[in-house]
Structures are given as C-alpha cells and as structure tokens.
Prior knowledge:
This protein is of the alpha/beta class. Helices cover 30% and strands 17% of the residues.
Amino acid sequence: MDAKTLSQADYLDILFDNRNKKYGSYELRKHYDNRATKALLYVFSLCFVLGGYALMHKEETATVLATIANKPIECSWHIVDLPKPKVEQPAPVAPAVKPTVANPIAKVVPDDKVIDQPKTVDDLKGKESGKVDVVGSNDGTIPATSKNTNTTGTGTNTETNEIRSYSEVLPSFDGDMIKYMQQNLRYPALARENGIEGRVYVQFVVNEDGTVGNAVIKRGIGGGCNEEAIRVVMNMPKWKPGMQNGRPVKVYYTLPITFMLQ
Length: 262
C-alpha cells in the first residue's frame, strides 16, 4: 500500500493489507456498526409493540386483576393417616413369692385370752416366716408381704387406679376415626384468617369403660386450633379400652390432629 492510499485507507484496510479479506473476520468487523444499529432498532420496535398492546388492553387487564383480588380464597383441611402408637416394652414382671406363714406378734395377755397361737415347727416346714399366710409357689424367691401378691410370676393380682402409658392391648377408636373428624372438626375462623395450619397433639386417658377424659394439649399451634382439638376429643364416643392381663385398664393415648388450609 503506497503513501497516498495509506492516508485515505480505513484502519481495517491497513490491518488486513495483504491478507485474505474474504476469510470472514474482515467482513464481521467492517459491517459491525450496521448490524448493531439494526439489532437496536429491532429491540426498540418490539418494546414499542408490546407497550402499545398493553395500553390497548389496559382496561381488560385491570378487570382481570380486580377479579383475582376479589375472589375468595377457598380453604379446607384434611386429616392424615394416624401413626400407629409406639408399643413400649412391658415392665419387668415381679418375681413370684415363696410359701409364707404369718408369724403373729407376741402379746402379753392372760392364758384364757390367747387368740393367736404361735406357729409350730411343722407349720414352718418349707415356708418363710412373714406377715401373712400365702400358699405361694415353690419357684418363689421372696416372702409375701400381702395377700394380693404375685404368686405365679406372671403379674400382680392387686387392682389399682394407675394410669398406664402402655398396655398389652392398646386402646383403639371404636369406628372410623377419619370419618368422625370430617363430620365434627371445624377449622377455627381465627386460624383461617391468619393462615395458621399445622398439627396439634392431644393426650388423653382412655378409661376402663372406654370413655375419654383428662385431655390436655401436648403441642399446639394456637389460633383456636388447640381448643377445637380438645372439644372434638372430649366429644368422642367410647373407645375400645386397653387390656392388661385380660382386664381393662386406664391408658394414656396421644392423638395428632392436623389442620391444613388448601
């Protein structure tokens, strides 16, 4: 490239002097400004069209948004399948007692007023001296202290009002629990308005006759859900009571009740 041409040449011509300008790089750089201008025009045109469309349908869009805003929110709840209560291991069985003979306490009284004769050697053969007369078992390991004492090693015969946390046969709802909840559980208005949902755990006692009592909240969520859970539990029909050694006993039971908005 001579001096006259050099003074009039573009920087690309100088850069690609004596090079293959048809390779592609020269063309890309040479026409870059035109392509960039066209791209900007396309973008601005698209924005203009979209803006015009939005202005033309402004009233229709406002109507749709107002309809959505005024549409009431439908809320509902569902009850999940109740988890099976954890079966705890029974307490260790008390050992059976030995045959025991009551050893009366000696009292100083006139001879003609002696009521409790002292035990003879024959009375004490194979038996332990204790507080009461109990037949006991040959496999027994301890003396008896009362007549209502375990004599076989399989349990106690004493009736108590103890409330158990477990039993051989756990108490169970006599019917369809899910159906009962669907017919009786009501979602509190305060909880619905504030979007409160979750699971309430209610502990209660199933008595020997199957009635339910002593219901308390072990874990709640507020918004009136705790009170509603207590109300529904206390209005339950009779359950099948827990069984221990073939007889009904009082057993604690914890029931989860789920409140959920949909």
